[in-house]
Amino acid sequence: MKTDKIFYTLFQIFPELLFQLLNQPPALAQNYQFQSVEIKELAFRLDGIFLPNSPDLDYPVYFLEVQFQKDPEFYWRFFTEIFLYLNQYKPLRPWYAIVIWAKESFDDGLPLPYQQLLVSQHIQRIYLDRITPQTSNSLGLQIVQFIITPEPQATQQVPSLLKRAKQQVTDAAIQQNVVELIEKIIVYKFPQKSRQELEAMFSLTEWKQTRFYQEAKEEGKLEGEQKGRLEGEQKGRLEGEQKGKLEGELEGKLKTVPLLLKLGLTPEQIAEELKIDIEKIQQFIASQNN
């Protein structure tokens, strides 16, 4: 599942979700904007940063990363990106690092040089597989739980989740974004089923009407163009190598023509002997005479 894009969209729509996961008042989200920020020097990009809207220093910066697989280099890379960001933007306020792991087993633990951050609580780790099922009305938390729910149970959750999204989100534009996000997750959770099958199973939106469909179509088009270009380059390279080889062989054979002429062979006999078109032999002889 392409979790980076899913969680980025999820936190854009439900910024209060971060504070719910941290067991803090959801209302704190009103003081933040969620962004993806590039660190220019090395072209690093932090997946998500909650930046305070208020100059009040009581609101810290939250660096957020989502990990759905093992990665022994993760913490080294994550803290490098954080400290590069702090050096570049120099925010004069506290900061915290938040890592959302799909499973606790994916987390190999904090490297020794950073373990003091645990004591100071500058890093907090959230394991989605340890979150107990919520009965609250938080749609964001329900979507997170849906992401990690096994396929058999997820099938049963789809209708109620879509219904809840349409009931709870009254703004038409935001509702469409939420529904499309849920449908995108459905596509990733059921990779063996076609879109037509999923539409029939869950009464989903007509795919061609969704932004997700258009993005996927464009992505497929770009991938197709890239693949075609690479295959063309490879074919051209191979053809070029073959052409070069043939040209080299021809040049080598033509170098023997003057000797064969001295031995009394006619151009026709030389062409037959060297298995070269008579016109090429005649052109070569003419070029030598000039």
Could you walk me through the main structural features you see in this protein, from its secondary elements to its overall organization?
The protein has 290 residues and is α/β, with parallel strands linked by helices. The chain has two domains: 3-216, no CATH class; 255-290. The chain has twelve helices and five strands. It has a five-stranded mixed sheet with strand order 1-2-3-4-5. Strand 1 (32-39) and strand 2 form a beta hairpin. Helix 1 packs antiparallel against helix 7, helix 6 (151-168) runs antiparallel to helix 7 (172-189) and helix 11 crosses helix 12. The longest helix has 44 residues, at 211-254. The radius of gyration is 32 Å and the shape is elongated.
Task: Provide key terms for this protein.
about 290 residues; elongated; 5 strands; alpha/beta; 2 domains
Quick structural overview:
By secondary structure, the chain is an alpha/beta fold. The protein has helices at 3-13, 16-21, 74-89, 116-119, 139-148, 151-168, 172-189, 195-202, 211-254, 257-262, 267-274, 278-289; strands at 32-39, 44-52, 61-67, 95-101, 123-127.
